Amino acid sequence: MVQTFEPKTDYKVVGTRPIRHDGYDKVTGRAIYGGDTKLPGLIWGVCVRSPHAHARIKSIDTSAAEAMDGVFAVITGADMPKAPSKLVDLGEGNVNFKWASNKLMAQDKVLYKGHPVAAIAAIDRYVGEEAARKVVVEYEILASVTNVEDALADDAPVILEDLVGDDLGEDVANTNMAEHIRHEFGDVQGAMASAAHTIEREYNMQMVHQGYIEPHNATAFWDEEDRIKIWTSTQGAFPARAQIAGILQVDVSRVKVTPMEIGGGFGGKIPVYFEPIAALLSKHSSRPVKMVMERTAVFETTGPTPGGKMKIKLGADANGKLTAAEADIWFEAGANPGAMIGPAAMCVYAPYEIPNTRIDGWDVVVNKPKTAPYRAPGSPQVAFAMESAVDELCEQAGWDSMEFRVNNSSREGTRRGDGVLFSKIGMEEVLEAAKDSDHWKSPLGDAPEGKTRGRGIASGYWFNIGLKSSANLAVNADGTVTLTEGSTDIGGSRASMAMHVAEVLGLQAHDVRPQVVDTESVGYTDVTGGSRTTYATGYACWIAANNLVDVLKERVGVLWDISPEDVDFNDGVFSSKAEAEKIIGFKDLAEKLADLGGPATSTGSVDLESAGDGFGMHIVDVEIDTATGKTDVIRYTAIQDVGTAIHPSYVEGQLQGGAVQGIGWALNEEYFMTDEGSMANSSFLDYRMPTILDLPMIETVLVEVPNPLHPYGVRGVGETPICPPIAAIANAIKDALGVRLYSTPMNAGSILEALK
Amino acid sequence: MTTSSPSKVHIKTTINGQEHEILVPPYMSLLDTLRELIGLTGTKEGCLDGNCGACTVNLDGRIVDSCLVLGAEANGKEINTVEGMATPEGLHPLQQAFLEGAALQCGICTPGFLVAAKGLLDNEPSPSEGRIRHWLAGNLCRCTGYDKIVRAVQKAANS
Amino acid sequence: MHPFAYVAPGTVDEAVAVLNEHGDRARPLAGGTDLLVKARANVWELDAVVDIKNIPELMDLKVGNDGLSIGAGVPCYQVYENDTIAADYPGIVDGASIIGGIQVQSRAGLGGNLCNAAPSADGICPLIVHNAVAHIAGPNGTREVAVEDFCTGPSRTVLGQGELLVSISVPKPGDNFGAAYTRFIPRNEMDIAVAAVGVSVSLDSSGQNFESARIALASVGPTPILASAAGDSLAGKPVNEESIAAAAALAKEAATPITDMRGTVEQRKQLVEVLTARMINQAVERARG
Fold first, then answer.
1. What is the pLDDT of residues A137-169, one digit of tens each?
2. Does residue A718 sit in the same domain as residue A623?
3. Label partner for C247 (CA 20 to 30 A): which of A392, A451, A500, B76?
């Protein structure tokens, strides 16, 4: 029986904006990120990488590298432990260890350009890089495929020879199609045939990257007892530990992962890349080894998000009600399966109530780096398709697209595309807030000469996840409380954890001192991702705080010689139920704890099956230079149901950051592939993420429909914001120019083409 | 390396007001010199090709990408990094404004933004929003969408 | 990256000697914003970098009645923060102020931008339309080369073994002269130009007619292109939409772009035509104002 909570209104700490506890370290440069790790005797690791997108390794000669002064060890795929095929749940997808191991260091074939084939431990990065250039590798180049169409063609080269594709339950061999799923409800054919209005369109998207500013890194030490210590920037120390142990073929308990501060992840730092390699280099050199990835390799060899192809067909009746929807989705997974077609299917129709639906999704292996989650993986893509199609359907039929969304809004009880029924959600409230927003009520204004303006809207959705988290609390004699938890802090979350505890205990946020700790200092905690951290880890902190109250009530019982059941606790004050004037505050009690039974500690943990869904709508105004195709975003508003905003500044920050990633995805970001199958633009110069000069202020509207599954009503907020922007911009461009784009990026060149 | 290793360069440089005298490999960047030889890891590595600004330091009064400066070039120069912004009296107004305004999420770009923004406010105490955005265009942030960063710089300018 | 030695000579002769000794395994280091990127990417294997920033002639910025002399190592910010240059040579400031961001402009200079000889360089077209001249020193003495003749291909220049760019001179423009430069980029900063156009015009004393004009194009050929036919077409013509459009069409014809990850042939040609017209208009405004 899942516990539900009534919304509160009288918060003392929740909803305030304290300075984050790690803030002083971060603005002074003291905070130690993964790349800053220092240990005595530390040496540096560098990878040797394949120049080819698909090739068999015929030979590797490392002798010249090994002979160099300053080189401590050289390893190749032959040194990787042979991992069996085994699935590990990372919280946002499963990992097959045999393939994951090969992905980190190719054993027989390279599957993407930049695929590591050897690694070197050297006295510093300069020597390491020179040594890497001396490794001689002989390749037999194979034909490569870098998009779904080529990969599915009859004559496509088979990338993973041992892949058995799953086509709706049927095994398929010799294929790049890893999985085909289907969800179907109602009578789609019949409803579509009798629809008064239909639209059918195809959309294409290029692969994009999360673009975090901090490159991947790992530091490892393999000691005399075969214990492996890892320091790394990761989105989950425990899932990382499981991956590392699995790839190195050691028990999980042999590996200790210390999460350092992390410079962005967005899903891309859930998989491990360097950790096992650094560990092996350490084993072979008897030194701690640090590896920091070059930016080119970050683009070429870590986990971007799938590009692909989508077909959407919608049917509606004469009254503007959607009656049927069909979606066919092909995503490129990269060199291993796992292109997040499942989540895409969950999200594609989510903002709408549609009685008859079909979704078919294909997960396709290509010679690109294995994709990783990127902030609501799969959802921004399908939102681009669906929200563009909805807009076009409205245009075609003469309907107002905002009112159409209101009339077809999903609500509690609506069936999602994969069959799950929504519980209490906030789509309708979001639409209300959008219509009521200053942006929506403001006129577009006139564009200067040579330019034209347009406005677009789009909805977006992410289901959010719960999963496992743990937290520990300990009371200090001065009335502060130490909190240790396992959720690596990418965006200010440790402050929100402390605020949960402070709210329960009647303390100030700064009286709770949060620490993010390693895998030997707290219970299992799943990734910081899936928009689960404030929800699930916050919940675990809340449980720990309530458990702490029980412990403290016992101590008060000892103090007053009464039963703990006769002790009340409200707003930070303990009182006797029998004698109302008998009270003691938290700080006073803390001072006395040493004599009342010793240290007061507690723990809390959760394994949450479901979370609260997150709905959003964005409004964007663009201004386009019709002679050059240059598009400027001149006004932007992100509206989202956030449940309850624990720390509103950081919730606003999630909306703003996700929106801007979506803007970059819409306008300029892409993997531009050469004919040889490599990424031509693998640098921040030509992989064009928005700069501060490319944007206006990003207005936010936080709608609060508390999530009954969380004690304070928290819904995950981090992922939904990246879902609406791409379609919102596509719709705005259509409004401005009268032409619609069906592919991303919608850059100046594409706009000029479309205007011809 | 083999016997033809080029000689290290002897440099004297002032970093955050303190004199340092060291030997640097001639090919080592100023960024690596600060992070590896001096031990100041506040300045960050993002791309090593001058496109993200995470490595921004102030060199003789101008903001530069330290990944594209050689350590050898620091000889006789004054360098100021993020570690030098606060004083015993307290944080620099920019640092305070970033904290109060939640102008950082993961924080990896923050040192670069702080040093770059200080380079602006030191010379132009009341920049417009457009000027702030133009000055900081060489600093990438992927987390915040820049909104709160601009507001924090404006707040610091007004304080 | 091949480990290179660092040398910081104090005179032109010393620098020339080191460069001559190593040939293409030594390069002058000015701002470092191209050199270090290329050395790290192993585009160049260097045994030595020659820091030229201690050589007075290469760091000198002279603004006088006969024009400008910009030392090869003078960073962009010194150019655009100079009030006289900003007032009298805004077309050069247009280019100098968009090479990278502020951090890059603290170090990178027009000299290095010219020697790097990227087809997309932002500093070269403004210099071409200002009739700038490159002053070179080498083992065989000194020589001068018009900036429009300096680049011979992508990353290739007329500099021979041991030769070093010392300075760039820009003659003082006459009255009724105006120049402007712009590029098209996908974002608002930090990008390599998809296409770029620099224009200078000299008007007659009435300001209603062109006496002469120079038009230079970047990113649409293996080197920056002096579009002579386009510029010459304005000589003697009235300043009106027709003559400007005709010149822009000729500029488009002079462009020889390729399709690559930054843009297509069609897009680049269209941009050349659009930007040329815009820059002629802006140059005229500056000439009149």
1. 999 999 999 999 999 999 999 999 989 999 999
2. yes
3. A451
